[in-house]
């Protein structure tokens, strides 16, 4: 199965509108509302045994829930030549969660926390969007199965760990 570890994000009305703006641009395939997430680790194709091993790792995570703050719009490889458009994110709590996940799968050293808005199919003009920073509560981390379909990916939760004890005063 094609799989990844992620935290799911429920977009605010504002963020959903940002997705709609990008979705109105010809040549961008926007992430569907129900699929919005921040990938912690893309695993690629794994077998059931590896999935079970990762689920054991997820169940052993010792991390609290946290707030994820959106910072602005970014793109890979660059805003001048976007192939993937995303919302930049930051959070101390996310880095603590990454350290926990890193105990059972390797995490890339150049990890850039982001929520994918969409994939660019050909050259586009980036819209000028006045970005509003927001905070999102994160209280669960999951292993997802990803099935690629012509209509778009279908994500299925394989296992999850609820993160307890949110600190509402936590710095991001």
From TrEMBL:
Q: What is its EC number?
A: 3.1.4.58
According to the UniProt entry, where does the motif HXTX 1 sit in this chain?
Answer: 37-40
Q: Annotated motif HXTX 2: location in the chain?
A: 114-117
Query: Any idea which UniProt keywords this protein has?
Result: Hydrolase
Where's the Phosphoesterase HXTX domain? 11-86, 92-155
- Asked whether the UniProt record includes Hydrolase among its keywords, one would answer yes
**Broad enzyme group:** hydrolase
- Residue ranges annotated as coiled coil are none
The UniProt record lists the keyword Hydrolase: yes
Name a GO molecular-function annotation. Answer: 2',3'-cyclic-nucleotide 3'-phosphodiesterase activity
Signal peptide positions are none
InterPro entries named among the record's database cross-references: Cyclic_Pdiesterase, Phosphoesterase_HXTX, RNA_CPDase
Pfam families (alphabetical): LigT_PEase (PF02834)
- Catalytic site: 37 (proton donor), 114 (proton acceptor)
Name the catalysed reactions. a 3'-end 2',3'-cyclophospho-ribonucleotide-RNA + H2O = a 3'-end 2'-phospho-ribonucleotide-RNA + H(+)
Of which family is this protein a member?
A: Belongs to the 2H phosphoesterase superfamily. ThpR family.
Function text: Hydrolyzes RNA 2',3'-cyclic phosphodiester to an RNA 2'-phosphomonoester.
**PANTHER family, sorted:** RNA 2',3'-CYCLIC PHOSPHODIESTERASE
Q: What is the protein name stated in its UniProt record?
A: RNA 2',3'-cyclic phosphodiesterase
């Amino acid at each position: 199965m094609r799989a990844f570890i992620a935290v799911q994000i429920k977009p605010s009305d504002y963020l959903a509108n940002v997705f709609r703006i990008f979705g109105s641009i010809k040549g961008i395939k926007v992430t569907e509302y129900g699929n919005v997430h921040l990938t912690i680790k893309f695993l690629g194709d794994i077998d059931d045994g590896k999935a079970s091993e990762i689920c054991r790792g997820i169940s052993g995570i010792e991390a609290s829930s946290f707030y994820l703050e959106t910072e602005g719009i970014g793109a890979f490889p660059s805003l001048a030549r976007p192939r993937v458009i995303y919302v930049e994110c930051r959070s101390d709590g996310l880095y603590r969660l990454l350290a926990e996940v890193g105990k059972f799968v390797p995490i890339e050293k150049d990890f850039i926390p982001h929520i994918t808005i969409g994939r660019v199919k050909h050259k586009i003009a980036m819209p000028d969007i006045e970005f509003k920073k927001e905070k999102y509560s994160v209280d669960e981390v999951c292993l997802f199965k990803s099935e690629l379909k012509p209509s778009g990916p279908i994500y299925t939760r394989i296992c999850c760990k609820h993160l307890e004890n949110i600190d509402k005063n936590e710095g991001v």
